[in-house]
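[step 3/7] inverse_fold.run input=structure_tokens len=277
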């Protein structure tokens, strides 16, 4: 797993999955996880993609293996996360990339494509809202004063188990996957998890949408709670180019529930763009 010092107090890590022919300069594809997760959550996609793309899977700062002594207010910001992505692309010597982000990772991708258009050749959004709606924040509070209070008072594992059961994964269809998701999420430092959730609560991609010049693919649940019809409408109205596909579930984690279908859509999208450029 490649890693490097981003600063004196932070070492960034990312997975690099490349099973392409060594003589073939295949495109780079960056898969960015969402809030509280890590590169490990993309594991179901790698068998489908790593023979066709040089796949980069970053761990966001403070999560997975990207660890350091972080100031929770100063160091957990949208600007810092975008800076990390640019540093990882430089470290991997990756040219313009296909970027695919899920949930909060998609918001980062929208901002990256808008601010640094020469670094991104296409953008794919997986279950990505423009912002977290008020009713979703209330749902994630689980009867507590706020989502943040619920996380602190219940503990991360209990909170993520209950919210995942309600919105992210069906607990009964693949109980092993559900349990793995909860256990893996709960490995994160609780203070980082809370700080990331505070960032997500305030984040919005609305101002970046019209500045995204590259083609955009959307892979979304059907009738998702986090990605409501209103959120999808904002994407349709705000993005100059948006190709949308719905997966047959209302649960948020479509990339874990439908890896073959998602990667098929993504590969067709990226291949078409590569053929045109």
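[step 3/7] decode complete -> sequence:
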């Amino acid at each position: 797993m490649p890693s490097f010092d981003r600063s004196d107090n932070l070492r960034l890590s990312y997975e690099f999955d490349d099973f392409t022919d060594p003589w073939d300069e295949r495109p780079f594809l960056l898969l960015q996880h969402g809030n509280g997760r890590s590169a490990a959550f993309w594991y179901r996609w790698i068998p489908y993609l790593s023979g066709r793309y040089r796949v980069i899977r970053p761990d966001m700062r403070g999560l997975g293996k990207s660890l350091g002594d972080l100031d929770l207010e100063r160091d957990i910001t949208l600007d810092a996360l975008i800076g990390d992505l640019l540093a990882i692309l430089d470290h991997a010597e990756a040219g313009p990339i296909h970027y695919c982000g899920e949930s909060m990772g998609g918001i980062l991708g929208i901002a990256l494509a808008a601010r640094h258009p020469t670094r991104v050749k296409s953008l794919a959004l997986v279950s990505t809202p423009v912002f977290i709606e008020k009713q979703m924040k209330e749902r994630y509070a689980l009867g507590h004063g706020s989502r943040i209070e619920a996380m602190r008072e219940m503990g991360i594992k209990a909170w993520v188990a209950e919210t995942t059961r309600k919105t992210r994964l069906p607990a009964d269809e693949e109980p092993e996957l559900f349990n793995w998701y909860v256990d893996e999420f709960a490995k994160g430092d609780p203070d980082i998890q809370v700080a990331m959730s505070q960032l997500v609560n305030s984040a919005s991609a609305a101002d970046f949408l019209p500045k995204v010049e590259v083609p955009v693919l959307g892979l979304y649940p059907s009738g998702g709670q986090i990605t409501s019809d209103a959120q999808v409408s904002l994407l349709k109205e705000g993005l100059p180019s948006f190709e949308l596909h719905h997966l047959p579930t209302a649960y948020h984690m479509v990339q874990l529930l439908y890896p073959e279908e998602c990667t098929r859509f993504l590969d067709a999208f990226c291949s078409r763009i590569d053929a045109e450029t």
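[step 4/7] annotate
Residues 259-276 form the longest helix (18 residues).
The radius of gyration is 18 Å.
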